Amino acid sequence: MPETLPQPAKLLVKLHGKGSQHIELTLNTVTIGRKTDNVLVIEDPAVSGHHARIVKIQAVFFLEDLKSTNGTALNGRPITRHQLRDADVITIGQHRLVFQENVAPSTAAPAPFVDLDRTTVLRGTDRMPDGPTLSAKVLVIAGKTDRVEYPLTKQVNVIGSQDGAVIRLTGWFAPKSAATIARRGQNYSISPSRDAKYLLVNGADVAGQQELKDGDQIEVAGVKLTFCILSGTK
Amino acid sequence: MHSAKSDTGLKRLHNEDRFVADPPLGLYVVCDGMGGGNAGEIASALAVEAICTHLAEATQRADLPLIGSCDATVSPTANRLASAIRAANDAIHRESWSRPDYVGMGTTVVAALLHDEVLAIAHVGDSRLYLIRNGAIQSLTTDHSWVTEQMLKGFITEEEAERSPRRNIVTRALGVENSVDVELTEVPVKSGDMLLLCSDGLTRGVHPNDILHILGGSDSLPVMSDRLIAMANEAGGDDNTTVVIVALRDDLQAGLWERLKKLFAA
């Protein structure tokens, strides 16, 4: 029986002294602030003009503080960027926003009794799936890309012009795929793609695969990038 | 280029393993079925059929809904592969209720889907995928088995795991429950890499170093697969053995334009 598709996540907005309302997080970016060009406008002098935003990356939501004066807290702790999980409480000034992700309850039917002669299945040891942890990013120093920094949220992060590339090159002659940054466990490594003419890390040519360290300078396909490990943002 | 071979082994009457090797689609799968009578064969056959059907449908219709949740850490292609495996779980689970002798049937699966220079790997159970690169062999899957979990927790050593009478207990399988936890991984691959997908018939008796020795000892993929099967049978042949060897090469047709471009750029 296929699982039903998840319903859109919601935000329960509890504005101080104004009751509460639900908004559906159907947009990829929901901006929050005092100015009227925000998706969620909070009229309060303690709230910055552009205070924070909720960004959806595929199925995962992230909360980002936009360098607000008074800060943004998640579950009581100040954050700059953090993944949102069901029932997380965002605090902006005296206002509270409760993130509600519609996690479909799994109605597991009683499993059939198994008596197998050979390979047998032991149940109930399913691990919790590891959530995507944002622990590294690259900053664009020079070159044509569609953004100035990219969180490396995927296991394989393609640098190139192709659809689905994490670091999107926008130069005219940018190759579809120039290089890939791959995560295995807590280690990141970079390797050139077939179409790459060169790949330099800290000025040295990389032919096969090289592990990346915090602060490494990457040069490929006309762009310069800095690799950064983000510590403590789990 | 690939070579796939499946063998019943020396002690079993049936071959419950099934495989897929579909280079145009970039899909390679090994399933090791389990269950009484011929239920194991049914389960593994249903699995490969459902996986291929789901992926074929997805190429026809880009808006085909994903089954199960989307993992943001991997590409849409990898999520599609996981979706196909969940479709297989549904198909087997549904069928397992249709006849009394099918109750509880299931199968392992290891599936690899190649897109551009990225390999998406999904697996459930103790069938494995090895990457052979620059003369070294590395397993890209971690068995969902009792002994492996005990080993990872540090309760038993690798040697104890290899000798354990509980080696045949898997902690996840397709079709046994109404939903399945699929482990998804993605890695970059390149020309010159070799992949080996195999059932536990190979890995129970044959050490990875011996596998590496065979894969490096010939230029012919069919010779390699024959030798691997022979080695599994020499080690006892207790179980069915299936091997799918894939040698990754620059695709000649797609590569022509790229090579021309490089020629002019050089």
Describe this structure in words.
- The complex is a heterodimer of chains A (234) and B (266).
- Chain A is mostly beta strands.
- Chain A contains no helices and 23 strands.
- Chain A has strands spanning 10-14, 20-24, 29-33, 40-41, 52-57, 60-65, 72-74, 77-79, 81-83, 89-92, 95-100, 120-121, 136-142, 149-151, 156-160, 167-168, 179-184, 187-192, 199-201, 204-205, 210-211, 217-220, 223-229.
- Chain A has a six-stranded antiparallel sheet, with no helix packed on it.
- Chain B has 266 residues and is α+β, with helices and mostly antiparallel strands.
- In chain B, strands 1-11-10-6-7 form a five-stranded antiparallel sheet.
- The longest helix of chain B has 22 residues, at 39-60.
- The model of chain B has no long low-confidence stretch (mean pLDDT 89).
By DSSP, the count of extended strands of chain A is 23
* Basic shape of chain A: elongated
User: How large, in whole angstroms, is the Cα Rg of chain A?
Assistant: 22 Å
Task: Give the helices and strands of chain A as they follow along the chain.
Answer: EEEEEEEEEEEEEEEEEEEEEEE
Task: Estimate what percentage of residues of chain B fall within beta strands.
Answer: 25-35%
Compute the number of helices of chain A. 0
Distance between the termini of chain B: 29 Å
Could you spell the SSE succession of chain B in H and E letters?
EEEHHEEEEHHEEEHHHEH
Mean pLDDT of chain A: 80
Oligomerization category of the chains in this entry: heterodimer
> Helical proportion of chain B?
25-40%
Query: Whole-number average pLDDT of chain B?
Result: 89
Number of strands of chain B: 11
Distance between the termini of chain A: 34 Å
Order of strands across the widest beta sheet of chain B? 1-11-10-6-7
Rounded radius of gyration of chain B (Å) = 19 Å
State the shape of chain B.
Answer: globular
